[in-house]
Amino acid sequence: MTSVKPLPQYLVTRYHGWKATTFAENHAWYRRLATEGQRPRAMVISCCDSRVHVTSIFGADQGEFFIHRNIANLVPPYEPDGNQHGTSAAIEFAVTSLQVAHLIVLGHSLCGGVKGCYDMCSGNAPELEEKSSFVGRWMDLLRPGFERLSEGSDEDRQTQLEYEAVRTSLDNLMTFPFVREAVEADRLSLHGCHNDIAEGGLKMLNPRTEDFEPV
Amino acid sequence: MTSVKPLPQYLVTRYHGWKATTFAENHAWYRRLATEGQRPRAMVISCCDSRVHVTSIFGADQGEFFIHRNIANLVPPYEPDGNQHGTSAAIEFAVTSLQVAHLIVLGHSLCGGVKGCYDMCSGNAPELEEKSSFVGRWMDLLRPGFERLSEGSDEDRQTQLEYEAVRTSLDNLMTFPFVREAVEADRLSLHGCHNDIAEGGLKMLNPRTEDFEPV
Amino acid sequence: MTSVKPLPQYLVTRYHGWKATTFAENHAWYRRLATEGQRPRAMVISCCDSRVHVTSIFGADQGEFFIHRNIANLVPPYEPDGNQHGTSAAIEFAVTSLQVAHLIVLGHSLCGGVKGCYDMCSGNAPELEEKSSFVGRWMDLLRPGFERLSEGSDEDRQTQLEYEAVRTSLDNLMTFPFVREAVEADRLSLHGCHNDIAEGGLKMLNPRTEDFEPV
Amino acid sequence: MTSVKPLPQYLVTRYHGWKATTFAENHAWYRRLATEGQRPRAMVISCCDSRVHVTSIFGADQGEFFIHRNIANLVPPYEPDGNQHGTSAAIEFAVTSLQVAHLIVLGHSLCGGVKGCYDMCSGNAPELEEKSSFVGRWMDLLRPGFERLSEGSDEDRQTQLEYEAVRTSLDNLMTFPFVREAVEADRLSLHGCHNDIAEGGLKMLNPRTEDFEPV
Question: Could you say which residues bind Zn(2+) here (chains A, B, C, D) (predicted)?
Answer without folding.
Answer: 47, 49, 108, 111
